[in-house]
Design brief:
single chain; 331 residues; alpha+beta; four-stranded antiparallel β-sheet; three-stranded mixed β-sheet; 11 strands; 37% helix; 15% strand
């Protein structure tokens, strides 16, 4: 019999008595686990701090953000993943760049889907109080289901063929203090994280196109240490470019008895168009302003017409990456 994948988005079932990864009923004594792992909560003293949910109104203590998984999944899949990630992340950039991209993807997808699980549970609860039900567009259901299917690579034999489904880039970043700076954007499955001495930016379902678009830039950066404002600028570029994609990622999924094969289909522009829509400096500037909030830079400072948005990454006079010590901004 062929392996079957679980899809909680088909029935919109997000109960605490069902394993979120496999769909199997949980034992009565199985406790849900924190979305953000214990080592993160302890290292950054986050347990009693609050996390802003998707509705922008609800704030939940980190320690209360939990997802139900079976004991088997926790012990044989999640714990080994967390051990691997914790060791590398707490050591720093030199170890993080050695982690296989598939493992980074699994960890990021686990966090993003965990937060989404809680967002949808909160929305369902509020709507139920009004005798209403939660509805998602078919497009979003399909997008979330694809990511969830790929996360099941933690528990079933799975092979990714063709293009990588994701763009993941890791950079060395100098911070004045150790922090946990997590951001996600659910609709387009964008992810960024900075801590210790590194930053990760990722598009989890672009079939590698955003990463390819910025290959020249990221290759020029190489192992150069970035200022935090430079890393946030990179995040803004990735996230805005992902928004501009004119085609959506699709995959051919083959379910066999011994494994699941997921083959990424190349993204294709419509006739007479480009794969990325027109880059609007004003819209990009708004994204950039959001990422540069810690430095309180206004749109007026970021865009001075007719010039393009300012950059702390690339010199105005050449394609050189600006050296860390030349940036007159606080860490």
């Amino acid at each position: 019999m062929a392996i079957q994948l679980y899809n909680p988005f088909e029935s919109m079932h997000f109960g605490m008595q069902t394993c979120f990864l496999t769909g199997k009923p949980l034992d009565a004594n199985t406790e849900p686990i924190p979305i953000f792992p214990e080592w993160v909560l302890e290292r950054y003293n986050l347990s009693d701090q609050t996390f802003k949910m998707l509705d922008e109104k609800t704030r939940v203590p980190y320690k209360n953000l939990k997802v139900p998984f079976s004991k088997d999944v926790i012990e044989n899949a999640l714990d080994p993943l967390e051990t691997e990630i914790e060791k590398a992340f707490c050591t720093g950039y030199d170890e993080v760049v050695k982690i296989p991209e598939e493992r980074l993807f699994q960890w990021m997808a686990k966090l993003m889907l965990g937060v989404l699980f809680e967002d949808l549970r909160i929305a369902q609860t509020k709507l139920a109080e009004q005798d209403d039900t939660l509805r998602l567009s078919g497009f979003l259901k399909a997008r979330f289901q694809k990511l969830h299917s790929m996360l099941q690579s933690l528990v079933v034999p799975m092979e990714f063929n063709g293009l990588k489904p994701w763009s993941i880039r890791v950079f060395k970043v100098k911070y004045s203090t150790d922090l946990f700076n997590y951001k996600d954007e659910t609709n387009n499955l964008n992810f960024s994280l900075s801590m210790n001495d590194f930053g990760i930016v990722a598009c989890l379902q672009d079939n590698g196109e955003v990463g390819k678009k910025f290959d020249d830039l990221t290759n020029r950066i190489g192992n150069q240490t970035l200022h935090p404002i430079q890393f946030e600028e990179l995040c803004a570029k990735f996230i805005y470019a992902n928004y501009l994609l004119t085609d959506y990622a699709s995959y051919a999924v083959t379910l066999d008895e011994d494994k699941v094969t997921i083959e990424s289909q190349p993204l294709v522009a419509k006739p007479g168009t480009d794969l990325f829509d027109y880059w609007d400096d004003n819209m990009y500037g708004q994204v950039l302003a959001n990422y540069w909030k810690p430095w309180a830079l206004t749109m007026k400072e970021i865009i001075q017409f007719p010039n393009p948005p300012i950059s702390f990454l690339e010199s105005d006079y050449s394609d050189e990456i600006i050296a860390l010590e030349k940036i007159n901004q606080p860490y």
